[in-house]
Amino acid sequence: MSELIQKITMPKWGLSMQEGKVNGWLVHVGDTLRQGQEIVEIESDKIAGALESSVEGTLRRVLAQEDEVLPVGALLGVVAPAEVSDAEIDAFIEAFAAGFVPGEGSGADAGSRVQYAEIDGRRIAYTVQGDAGPALVLIHGYGGDKNNWLFNVDTLAERHTVYALDLPGHGDSDKALPADAGPAGMAQVVLGFMDALGLDAAHLVGHSFGGATALAAAQAAPQRVRRLHLIAPAGLGAEIDADYVRGFAATNSRKELGRLAARLFADEAQVTRALVDDLLKFKRLDGVPEALAAIAAALLDGDAQRMQLDLPPGVSATVIWGELDRIIPVAHATALTSAAVHVLPDAGHMVMMEAAREVNRLLGA
């Protein structure tokens, strides 16, 4: 009956994750698990979050204990129906341990390694995962990168081919910006990216500045957008935390970066020292301060947002917002009158991290 046994393993959240710490189980042996249910809290060196179950059935065995640090791919638990004997589960666990090599078969490595596309003379970094269903392109926000989607990619890849790119000036992409550093210029990069990968049309998922970029791409080429999925997007109203935008571009202080990053989350404990260290390393790369300053100038007119975007005819959209967003007010969520709007409680600007399960459900729908 070994074919009835399913495993729960340490996830790989982001390309650099090698191990994770078990902070605590949210379910108990004997519980019936549902697909997508949060089952165990995991902490990596970058961020903490809840692992969602990818399987359904009865949790028969818990192997990873609280505070235990295990490599990516390690066995955390076993799910199996009642007719599978304890001896068969013991044999499964023994066989897994005998064949497990840390660093091999850890899930996202092969599909999510960084690749590059040449677009208008710039090298644009991206990852791709999954090969089922229509293409879905993830566009991060100002100062972010493709790893902002680390809690979303695995789930979305079950039903889509998922591309997560680094916009110019960000992540592993070239730091030189298009002449228009605002959403319209970045939209041309996204459309060029789709051209380079042979994507005639795709779902566009944009967060914050990436949301404005996705909206601008839909305005420029509506026939290439299957649907817009806008997560706390810029460009729908005047109000914005301009102090955050300018401060992030200007500072090279670890303390100040930590203070600014805390505004992104409803739960400020999400901002780990490792996260701030990564931001600091990014800020110190050649060309990054200039790129961020140029984007900030394109985004802001004084303390207000410069652009006011609208949904082009014939393009449908979903808008997702964290109720406790401190960067762009949730009141903007209803600006696109024909869009389906979802406001999620207890989440801030990084709602796709803080409410990943619900965001994944909405995107999957």
UniProtKB/TrEMBL annotation:
Q: Where is the Lipoyl-binding domain?
A: 5-80
- Reported cofactor(s): (R)-lipoate
**Gene Ontology MF, one:** transferase activity
Q: Which Pfam families match?
A: Abhydrolase_1, Biotin_lipoyl
Q: Identify this protein by name.
A: Pyruvate dehydrogenase E2 component (Dihydrolipoamide acetyltransferase)
Domain of life, per UniProt, equals Bacteria
Q: Coiled-coil ranges per the record?
A: none
Q: Does the keyword Plastid apply?
A: no
Listed A to Z, the keywords are: Lipoyl, Pyruvate, Transferase
